[in-house]
Amino acid sequence: MDVSTHLKPTGSIVILTGAGISKESGLDTFRCAGGIWDKVDLEDVATPEAFLRNPPLVHRFYNDRRRGLLDPAVQPNAAHAALAELERAWPGDLLLVTQNIDDLHERAGSKKLIHMHGELLKAVCLFCRTVMECRSDLSLEQACPHCGRRNGLRPDVVWFGEMPYEMERIQGELAACDLFVSIGTSGNIYPAAGFVAEARAAGALTVELNLEPSSGASQFREAIHGPATEVVPAFVKTLLALT
Ligand code: BV8
């Protein structure tokens, strides 16, 4: 494996995760058979226009997912735990960028983490822009606890047509990394799907860990296919054997 022969223990690593890493924790993916976009049209629930058109429908979509995430049966899995261990043990820089809005990486212990598509357990007020914890249902009728206005609370997630969070920081890390690892993402959503090209242009090794080849599989130098709870711990073990 090129990683074993080319990556130095002082190398910097950027990891991108998608819905596939949380699948074995019991959370649905988007584009697999029976996934989220098989049940609802993203144009109806995951755009600013959808929220303006029918806020109760959008709130119901995210309220259902938030309740699902808070089900005690949903716990971080061995892949989340392996990435937290890698952050603790890797001597070089490491940044974990997730497209996921669940909190399973945090609960597994990851700290150097960016939620580029926001967080299901946070809400934002359209009027005062305050971001707050949110562990119960949201509705328009609720008043913002900070400015007191009603009709302004929405999930703090990035919808289609909205700018993902911390893009400058992410692109700076991609331009400087020695290894880019993509885990559990179909490679269909931009700008995340373009990160592999940015990392390659910077001279980084690029590896895809996924159940099956993603849409961007041909752009990766290496690919390891299988369930995340198997391939991620094995890959982390290979990396830590270099230190
Ligand atoms: C933006 C909301 C611009 C929260 C989501 C080119 C450049 C830039 C933008 C675009 C572009 N082309 C098109 C666009 C627009 C658009 C886009 O990408 N459209 C697509 C349809 C082409 N992008 C945007 O709108 C983005 N914004 O670009 O803004 C801008 C510029 C200036 C000023 C303002 C704005 C915003 C994109 C974010 C949208 N929000 N979600 C939520 O509800 O969750 S996207 C949604 O898809 C989720 O966030 C999800 O994370 C993301 C990606 O999906 P995946 O995570 O990959 O999940 P998927 O189901 O697809 O795949 C799962 C994979 O796991 C599969 O491959 C499967 O095989 C694998 N798997 C399954 N089980 C396992 C497994 N792997 C391992 N183990 C297993 N057990």
Specify the biggest β-sheet.
6 strands, parallel
Shape: elongated
State the separation between the terminal residues, measured CA to CA.
16 Å
User: Mean pLDDT score, rounded?
Assistant: 96
Q: Please, could you describe this protein's structure?
A:
By secondary structure, the chain is an alpha/beta fold. 33% of the residues lie in helices and 18% in strands. The protein contains 10 helices and 9 strands. Helix 7 links the parallel strand 2 and strand 3 (113-115). Helix 6 packs parallel to helix 10 and helix 8 packs parallel to helix 9 (195-201). The longest helix is centred in the N-terminal third of the chain and has 15 residues, at 55-69. It is elongated, with a radius of gyration of 18 Å. The mean pLDDT is 96. Bound molecules: ligand BV8. Ligand BV8 is lined by residues 18-20, 23-24, 29-32, 35, 46, 99-101, 117, 157-164, 184-186, 188-191, 210-212, 214, 227-228. Ligand BV8 binds next to loops.
SSE order and pairing:
Blueprint: H1 2-6, E1 13-17, H2 36-39, H3 42-45, H4 48-53, H5 55-69, H6 78-89, E2 94-98, H7 104-108, E3 113-115, E4 118-125, E5 131-133, E6 153-157, H8 167-176, E7 179-183, H9 195-201, E8 205-210, E9 222-225, H10 228-240
Parallel strand pairs: 1-2, 1-7, 2-3, 7-8, 8-9
Antiparallel strand pairs: 4-5, 4-6
The chain binds ligand BV8.
Ligand BV8 binds at residues 18-20, 23-24, 29-32, 35, 46, 99-101, 117, 157-164, 184-186, 188-191, 210-212, 214, 227-228.
